[in-house]
Write a structure and sequence with these properties.
heterodimer; A: alpha+beta; Rossmann fold; eleven-stranded mixed β-sheet; 11 helices; 21% strand; elongated; B: four-stranded antiparallel β-sheet; four-stranded antiparallel β-sheet; 3 helices; 41% strand; WD repeat-containing protein 74 (chain B); WDR74/Nsa1 (chain B); WD40_rpt (chain B); WD40/YVTN_repeat-like_dom_sf (chain B); IMP4/RPF1 (chain A)
């Protein structure tokens, strides 16, 4: 550095340090000037590089991958390999397996905590619209443990309880019947349909479902629970799609209708409620918070960050993904058929979720649905 | 050594027996994956002999298989079917199996036809024996008080516990014994319950527990004694809280952190201060009991039910540390052992040592002061060593 400074001193006077200017206005002006110069230089450099790369053609150095939290993430050791025999065996015998063997049809009971506020009620109504074959029951101050046998006798396969605090829905308990498991989620950012801009009207078609990034063993269990809430055969002409997108352990629920504008572009219109879930606990068996055994429970104090990330994942390289797509249409989905609705796809870019959803590579996937229809 | 030595064996909920060589963080399924069925859930596991070369594991459907670790083969499966209940306990006493089912039938099998039966009451949750006197069994369950049986007289329990007194509202305290263990080298028993109580029974003293206290607020599903210490036990509950409990104080001494799911089984190493635990979160964890440190954490893919901690650890580990000196924490353990040995040597050494006198320059100082200096040193050293040994 020192030698460089010396050589500089010979050719030109070094630039004064801006922070040594004591007048605020002058300092600001100088700073702005410096900033503009820097920007100009940056643009210049960019242009030069672009030109260089164009000149080199194929020999150009490969584009660098940006370092984002997602791309830097280390895969969790419990990540499920699609070919893993043991996990496949385990899942083929778990509590949701009867749904995946197409033996049961989902039927959902939606209820709330005691004396729900009007907002929670509205939310439940929207949930009922988005989940086919569901019914809302007033809680009537009943214990959940007493509801379960009643629901069982009426052939319900799932119970969904919306809890609220300060008249805002803030929790969701999902119990699969008859033998569990039960998951408890924290719910946040609830947006009802009228609060969403340019919201569309919901139709009664059976939706398709997209589950993203439920890749660890725990993620698989939770993803299977979500998948088993929907009827098996989506009505593709309804163009309704429900997405559970997991990003850093937050599960984003979105409900869209898509349209194919042309071969390359697709449009999305949001339909239903919008909310975010975060897993609090996964319990074996039907709801029993006192004596139930927990498969996973979120603990407030953790020693290392390792435990906080439940569904840690590394973004699937798009190439791999395409290959996987060409193979069987879905990469990691639990044992559902080819024509089925579950798909895992990477969402590129670092834009916020909603924006990402509109650029959806999912659209390409949706196109595949249509191809399926044609086949 | 080509094949890794398995020092922990874990039984899973889908019937896979897993051999884990902890130091290398390697594991394998000992039985083939094709046999993985929920029906074959491994619900109990025990050593087949004292050399720890045979492993007997009982399936939920009341069958028992034996695996030989030397020949790496399974011997023929034995069917101890009693009724519809699930297997809750399995023991091996003098080459005979003892099984316990959830319906409360405990049987000592001399033959497929010839057996001694104990009716231990319905909703049985646990069955253990006293390692000192293997013929003495203890059973307990839901609304089924702790009973101690002698296999020679199966008609009547030798000890039947009495429920604790009614609570301050004069309501009956429900009974739900989930785990029970005999305290080492004594007749005392420690039990844990579904209502988060830990109780110590002394059959010689009284029928009610001599000690009764609670830990946390969830059913305590796992219990283990620690080596030869009769005043410390390790418990684990359904929410993944695991702690070392001091029975003298009736309080928690250490809490082990970082466990995500309910604990099903805990076992301590015979001689070293190591503890293995497994449960619903599909991880096998090895903790150092003294430092509370998590030494190993191995993902085993299935929900885990029960485990066996082999004693092989010690020798193998020492070899490793000598050759590579890589495992720093294990080194610590080794040091502890060395300290133990050192303790006695130290004592002798100090006693035999001559008092070295140096010529003092100052007039006032005498011999005695030197001696008192030495004594001070000794007293300083002693308690520190003593602490680690205990």
């Amino acid at each position: 550095m020192a030698s460089k400074d010396e050589s500089m001193a010979v050719s030109e006077i070094p630039k004064p340090n801006i922070s040594s200017i004591r007048n605020k206005q002058l300092r600001k002006a100088a700073y702005m000037k410096l900033k503009i110069e820097k920007r100009k230089e940056k643009i210049k450099e960019k242009k030069r590089k672009k030109k260089e790369n164009e000149a080199l053609g194929d020999k150009a150095p490969p584009k660098q991958v940006p370092k984002t939290i997602e791309s830097m993430r280390i895969p969790d050791e419990t990540m499920v390999n699609a070919q893993d025999e043991e996990v496949m065996k385990d899942e083929a015998q778990d509590e949701m397996s009867s749904y995946f063997r197409r033996e049961t049809l989902p039927k959902i009971l939606i209820t709330t905590s005691d004396r729900p506020s009007s907002r929670t009620n509205k939310f439940c109504k929207e949930l009922k619209k988005s989940f086919p074959n569901s019914e809302i029951y007033y809680r009537r101050g009943l214990d959940l443990k007493k509801i379960i046998p009643q629901a069982l006798s009426r052939d319900f396969t799932d119970i969904m309880v919306v809890n609220e605090n300060h008249q805002q829905p803030n929790g969701l308990i999902l119990t699969h019947l008859p033998d569990g498991p039960t998951s408890h989620f924290k719910m946040s950012n609830v947006r009802l349909a009228p609060e969403i801009k340019r919201v569309g009207e919901m139709t009664g078609h059976q939706p398709e479902i997209i589950l993203n990034n439920f890749n660890t063993r725990l993620g698989h269990s939770v993803g299977r629970m979500f998948a088993s809430l929907f009827p098996h055969d989506p009505e593709f002409h309804g163009r309704r799609v429900i997405t559970f997108h997991n990003q850093r352990d937050f599960i984003f629920f979105r409900h869209h209708r898509y349209v194919f504008r042309n071969e390359k572009r697709a449009g999305l219109q949001e339909l239903g409620p919008r909310f975010t879930l975060k897993l609090r606990s996964l319990q074996k068996g039907t709801f029993d918070s006192k004596y139930g055994e927990y498969e996973w429970i979120h603990k407030a104090v953790r020693t290392t960050i390792m435990y906080i990330t439940v569904f840690r994942r590394r973004t699937i390289a798009s190439k791999e993904f395409n290959i996987a797509l060409n193979d069987n249409g879905n990469t990691n989905s639990p044992s559902q058929g080819k024509e089925d609705c579950q798909l895992f796809h990477p969402i590129m870019g670092k834009s916020p979720i909603v924006k990402a959803m509109t650029q959806l590579p999912a659209i390409t996937l949706l196109r595949r649905y249509q191809e399926h229809l044609c086949e | 050594m080509a094949a890794p030595i398995h020092n922990v064996f874990v039984g899973s909920e889908i019937g896979l027996l897993k051999g884990v060589s902890v130091q290398k963080s390697q594991w394998e399924n000992i039985n083939s994956i094709e046999t993985a069925e929920k029906e074959n859930e491994i619900s109990a596991i025990c050593w087949g002999n004292d050399d720890q070369t045979e492993i007997c594991f009982g399936l939920k459907c009341q069958k028992v298989k034996t695996y030989d670790t030397d020949t790496k083969e399974f011997s023929e499966e034995r069917d101890f079917h009693v009724d519809e209940g699930r297997l809750r306990g399995l023991l091996r006493i003098d080459n005979n199996f003892v099984t316990a089912t959830s319906t409360g039938v405990v049987r000592l099998w001399k033959d497929a036809e010839d057996f001694t039966e104990i009716q231990a009451g319905k909703d049985l949750y646990c069955m253990t024996n006293n390692p000192v006197t293997p013929n003495v069994l203890a059973t307990g369950g839901k609304e089924n008080e702790l009973k101690i049986w002698n296999l020679e007289e199966p008609e009547k329990p030798t000890f039947l516990a009495k429920n604790v007194k009614n609570d301050w509202l004069n309501l009956r305290v429900p009974v739900w014994v989930i785990q029970t263990r005999f305290l080492p080298e004594s007749e005392k028993l420690v039990t844990t319950t579904g209502h988060h109580q830990i109780r110590v029974y002394d059959p010689k003293a009284q029928r009610r527990p001599v000690l009764d206290f609670t830990y946390d607020e969830y059913p305590i599903t796992a219990l283990s004694t620690w080596g030869r210490q009769d005043n410390k036990v390790i418990v684990g509950n359904t929410q993944g809280q695991m702690a070392l409990i001091d029975l003298r104080k009736g309080a928690m001494v250490q809490q082990y952190k970082g466990i995500a799911g309910g604990i099903r089984c805990i076992q301590c190493h015979e001689s070293l201060p190591l503890m293995a635990s497994c449960g619903l979160d599909r991880f096998l964890r090895i903790h150092d009991l003294e430092t509370r440190e998590l030494l190993h954490k191995i993902y085993l893919k299935s929900k885990l039910n029960c485990l066996l901690f082999g004693r092989k650890w010690e020798r193998e580990e020492k070899r490793e540390t000598r050759s590579r000196g890589k495992f720093s924490n294990v080194k610590g353990i080794e040091n502890l052992e060395v300290k133990e040995e050192m303790d006695e040597e130290d004592e002798n050494m100090w006693e035999q040592m001559k008092v070295v006198q140096t010529k003092t320059k100052r007039k006032g100082e005498t011999q005695e002061e030197n001696i008192s200096d030495l004594k001070k040193k000794k007293t300083q050293l002693k308690p520190r060593v003593g602490k680690t040994v205990k």
